[in-house]
Amino acid sequence: MTLGIAVIGTGRMGADHVRRIDSVIGGARVAAVADLDAERAGAVAAGIEGCSVHTDPAAAMSAPGVDAVLVASSGPAHEAALLDAFARGLPVLCEKPLTPDPAGALRVMAAEQRLGHRLATVGFMRRYDREYQELQQILERGELGRPLMLHCRHRNAASPSFFTTEMLIRDSVVHEADATRWLLGQEITSVQVLRPRPSSYAPAGLGDPQLVLFETDGGAVVDVEIFVNCGFGYEVRCEAVCERGTASIGEGGGLVTRTEGRAAGAIPQDFTVRFADAYDREVQAWVDATRRGRAEGASVWDGYAAATVCEAGVRAQRSGERVRVEQTARPALYK
């Protein structure tokens, strides 16, 4: 069976997923797209045989040949799309964040529990990056002893005009929140945010960069440098410090030229370049699992857990204090 997918949202991420489904991965096709901007949706769908264009997500999900849904709209629209997909019994791959806040994530989780089985996968694509997977396997096998600390860097060349200080946590550090939980197999219990003097290159009112500190229930400490106007490119790094050694990823092992007394290599300029392969593997894995009737990968619980960390992080931004992460008990469906 070729999986017919309705892609909700045809902005930068949605358009990239449409391209990926149509021309990169196997076992699926784009059956419908939806976006409030009808012209943009039409342009993204142009040339894709049998792909219908809609401005209403519900209409796209009801289109002929739709078997599953990929949600790539803005975060505040995710909850409604997920609940609509659940009501139709359609499997969903939802881009992060699951919802902007824990309350919305709890409503999504309650709806999925009423179904009695998982339908949603949350798009934390770092879980599909080869370097991240290798680091996770090393830590899981215990080759370097117990992990004590993670040092993380998350840098963007420049932030979009609409980016806010709160989005540093909810839209960027959310990746480190999930990666920390996945790499260590531990829950984050508290968040603290240190705010140096903003860069002179940061837009007015944006508190950039920041240093975010996580503590986990396994006794690990994680520091995250978030710097979304670093100027030179897109860079994601992680170093695990363990009892018997360290392991690092994201050091840029690509082509380096040496000439005229200088060494130089390319630095990716955005996430679609750095994590292109991870996105391909993520969507292919989702398609394969969905065709087998399964939901694999990051769950709604993982999306909720990341939202609770981000909620604590935003409170820590505002207060300057260490803030406890508040979570409900994990439901049996996600154990």
3D structure, described in words:
- The chain is of the alpha/beta class.
- Helices cover 36% and strands 24% of the residues.
- It has helices at 12-23, 38-45, 57-61, 78-87, 102-115, 130-141, 165-184, 271-274, 276-291, 300-319, and strands at residues 3-8, 28-34, 52-54, 68-71, 92-95, 120-123, 147-155, 188-194, 210-216, 221-227, 235-242, 245-249, 256-259, 262-265, 323-324.
- The strands form three sheets. It has a seven-stranded mixed sheet with strand order 12-11-7-10-9-8-15. It has a six-stranded parallel sheet with strand order 3-2-1-4-5-6, sandwiched between helices. The protein has a two-stranded antiparallel sheet with strand order 13-14.
- Helix 4 (78-87) packs parallel to helix 5, helix 6 packs across helix 7 and helix 7 (165-184) packs across helix 10.
- The radius of gyration is 20 Å and the shape is globular.
- The model has no long low-confidence stretch (mean pLDDT 95).
Key features of this structure:
single chain; 335 residues; alpha/beta; 7-stranded mixed sheet; 6-stranded parallel sheet; 10 helices; 36% helix
